[in-house]
Amino acid sequence: MTEPFVPTKPLTVGIDIKSPECYLALAPTRAVARELGVDVDWLPLVTSPPRPAPTGDDRDARHKRHRVAYRAMDLARYARAQGLTIREPDRAPDSTVAGMAMLAARSHSDAALHGFLDRVFERYWKMELDLEDATAIRALLGEVGVADFDPDSDPCREAFAALGASLAAAGLFNAPAYLVEDELFQGRAHLPMIRWILTGRAGPGPI
Q1: φ and ψ of 44, to 5 deg
Q2: Are the C-beta atoms of 120 and 26 separated by less than 8 Å?
């Protein structure tokens, strides 16, 4: 039986590079952590892609198409607000190699991790990077000083699989996911509540 993930820092954040919601969550989450002076454990999640809009003309299909269209509009609105480029948000590559690379950068240093995240998110969402191209991912790691990365090695794959199982056992299955004081939150919309918890729950909580 897989043991659930045990946090080692005040805030754990699970992200998937192929998720536009995670790209939009990156800067606001960093801002909260910087403001409060808390350490964040950034961890990779490989999540299921969103379902495509159905083609039927029944009420349920129309409703789902409206939800897909609203998501695209919402992503575009918040990307403009942050000055980010998000192209073709419904792409669904296998982000395993990028996740393993994120772990390699995390093991190297905080600077390497954040340098990697900045580069991989920006280039993927500008459609300048194939997340399934191990050679391109390895080159990107080299830019942040990480030279030892072999996504085909058994230790690398086993460590990544073990972490994924541990995070899933703790309830982190979608992204961005936030774990703080044994409470789990899905989505950057919960950052005000997370901030309140991290500041000792002083005063009334955000509604």
Answers
A1: -85, 140
A2: no
What CA–CA distance (Å, rounded) separates 18 from 40?
A: 20
Q: Locate all alpha helices (DSSP H) within the chain, ordered by sequence.
A: 20-36, 59-82, 96-108, 110-125, 134-143, 154-169, 191-198
CA 144 to chain centroid, in Å, comes to 19
In the block, residue with structure tokens 């199982």: 165
Which amino acid, one-letter code, is at 164?
Answer: G
Q: What is the maximum alpha-carbon separation in the chain? A: 53
Helix (H) or strand (E) holding 177: strand 177-180
SS3 55: coil
In degrees and rounded to multiples of 5, residue 184 shows phi and psi of -110, 135
Q: What are the pLDDT digits (tens) for 107-152?
A: 999 999 999 999 999 999 999 999 999 999 999 999 999 998 999 9
User: What is the model's pTM?
Assistant: 0.93
Tens digits of per-residue pLDDT, 93-114? 999 999 999 999 999 999 999 9
Terminal Cα-to-Cα distance of the chain (whole angstroms): 37
Contact 13, 41 (CB under 8 A): yes
Q: Specify the amino acid at residue 77.
A: R
Instruction: Give the integer Cα–Cα distance in Å for 170 and 176.
Output: 14
The one-letter amino acid code at 202 reads: A
